[in-house]
Amino acid sequence: MLPISHVFSHSIVGLDIHADEIRLLHLKKKRQKICIENFAFVPLTTDAIQDGKIKQIEVIYLAIKKLVEMTNTKNCRAIIALPGVSVIMKKILLPASIRESEQAHEIKSKLNHYLPGMSEELCFDFVKTNSTAQNENEVLLVASRSEQLNMYLTVTNEAGLKTRVVDVDSFALLRAVFFSLQKKIASAAVILDVGISGTQFLIFKNQEIIFKQHLGVVLEEFLIIQIKRAIQVCLSTYSHLQLDTVYLTNGFHLISQKMQNELGLKIVFINPFPFLDTAPAVNKESLSNLGSRFLVSLGLAMRSVCI
Question: What CA–CA distance (Å, rounded) separates 303 from 299?
């Protein structure tokens, strides 16, 4: 996987290659302020991406190329995301005696041990967690099949962008939520991001995702039941976890009060865009109506901005 690093320049694109549509958000840094230059999306056919795998590469290429033309972002630096179903995430322990510069080599040499049964060639990245242990460092290992990662990279670059970093959609979503709140949250909470192809359910604590699950497409009256089940599954592992808030991105306004009553948790709607400047050409009404669909794109583009 491409290195996790600070890559924010004066112009950056966050490209969310989602199963039902591709979303592009273009940010620029102007006088220490972050400005939305443009945004656009292109719907996809239902079988273009399945289970995180690109099945119709020509369809994806044409969609990204169209977005690049619509937003005038050819040759812009871009950060893209792999869907959570395409990556393997596992917390591992490394001896504290291993220097930071040697950690990548240590993980690579023991990748088959950390991820047994994986016969395909893998790309990986890792980040140190907030947990500490005597004589050991805990890191979050994130790996993806090289073939699948390269397909995302190739189609993005050939369509006119210059990919600099590959992220994971759930990490980008969490980053966008924190930016929207304008603060970092230490307590445990839920994030719900609804989409045409289902709902992304995340639980985080101390700014780290500790549980995630994809909830399928269901009627609104059954969604609360699925959310309750997902919370129960998480609590079966983290029995002492105390949840206090559900952060909603979109699509839940009609049942938010019922959700609050049945879950017993405070409901907070997420909208980070009032904290960003917009270029004169940006349609603010459209951004207000569609903005929540671009949270992952925003989280990608802002991954190197301190929030």
Answer: 6
